[in-house]
Automatic annotation (TrEMBL):
This is HAUS augmin-like complex subunit 1. It holds the Pfam family HAUS1. Keywords: Cell cycle, Cell division, Coiled coil, Cytoplasm, Cytoskeleton, Microtubule, Mitosis. One of its GO terms (cellular component) is HAUS complex. Belongs to the HAUS1 family. It comes from Lachnellula subtilissima. Its main location: cytoplasm. Transmembrane segments: none annotated. It is found in: Cytoplasm, Cytoskeleton, Spindle. It comes from the Eukaryota. Residues 226-277 form a coiled coil. GO terms for biological process: cell division; spindle assembly.
Length: 295
């Protein structure tokens, strides 16, 4: 057996032989199934490999299952039809119903078919006017509810379309040139990084300078000290404003003290004279306007 090639030894392997036998049986089954589907005509030529065999076997299994279900459904329908025919034949009122149906006019037949269709649609095999009316009302209520839901969905859809339009406009704006980075962004970034590195290198020296200045000043100044000084400054500003108001009241007087006193005295005399004239004019006005008593 040493002269045999590996492929020859593989062919004569028992496991490979069993696999080939099973594949041959499967292909025979597929060929017979295809011949039945093509009505004895040869099927189109296709590649015969394991993948094709698996696909055809799965398709044949599904087809047989569907055929069995269809055959079972046909049997059930035939049995139901036989039962209905038997019940109809056993009905003692069959001839009466047939005669009534034959005697119906075209409008009557249309009405009867409408009632029967309505009974089937409402799942009410036994005709009951009250139940049919209730079923119709329920259908109307359901229809109105569905219409309201449809309106809400349309409103929501319109709102979503509006929001989508706004989002698209926003995306367009964000993709415009106004929101694009400048062309020299890389250069600016490198400049900022270089400045940051320079400031970081100077930071230890600045810290040492601050420490030396703090040691030179001695007692550190707190925020409360600054606030107290600010309050004192505000009080001085109020005093200065009061003094400025007092100084403005003496505006126009001579700089010499004696002359200023003389001018002030003259103004006082003038004020007294004006006051006297005012009083005399007021008294004359009172006497003139006062009613005189008859003698």
């Amino acid at each position: 057996m040493a002269h045999l090639s590996p492929s020859a030894s593989a062919v004569f392997s028992p496991s490979v032989a069993r696999q080939q036998l099973a594949a041959a049986k499967d292909w025979n089954y597929i060929d017979s199934w295809l011949s039945t589907k093509f009505n004895g005509k040869p099927p189109p030529v296709f590649e015969r490999n394991n993948d094709t065999l698996k696909a055809l076997l799965a398709l044949a299994a599904l087809n047989e299952t569907a055929d069995e279900e269809r055959e079972l459904l046909a049997r059930v329908e035939a049995k139901a039809l036989q039962d209905l025919q038997a019940q109809e034949d056993a009905n003692p009122n069959k001839h009466l119903l047939d005669s009534i149906e034959e005697s119906l006019t075209r409008e009557g037949q249309t009405s009867l078919e409408a009632l029967s269709s309505l009974s089937v649609s409402l799942n009410q095999p036994v005709f009951a006017l009250e139940k049919l009316g209730r079923g119709i009302i329920d259908l109307h209520i359901t229809s109105n509810d569905l219409d309201q839901v449809a309106d809400r969905v349309s409103i929501l859809e319109k709102h979503l379309k509006g929001e989508l339009k706004k989002i698209n406009i926003l995306i367009t704006d964000l993709q415009s040139d106004a929101y694009q980075p400048p062309s020299d962004l890389a250069k600016r970034t490198s400049d900022y990084q270089r400045r940051i590195k320079g400031l970081a290198a100077k930071l230890p020296d600045l810290k040492e300078k601050v420490a030396s200045l703090s040691a030179t000043v001695g007692t550190p100044i707190t925020i409360q000290d600054v606030k107290n000084e600010e309050d004192k400054f505000k009080a001085l500003m109020v005093t200065v404003k009061d003094l400025e108001a007092q100084v403005k009241s003496y505006h126009g007087l001579p700089q010499d003290t004696d002359l200023a006193r003389l001018e002030l005295e003259g103004l006082r005399v003038e004020l007294r004279e004006l006051t006297r004239k005012r009083d005399s004019m007021f008294e004359g006005l009172v006497e003139r306007e006062s009613p005189r008593k008859p003698r």
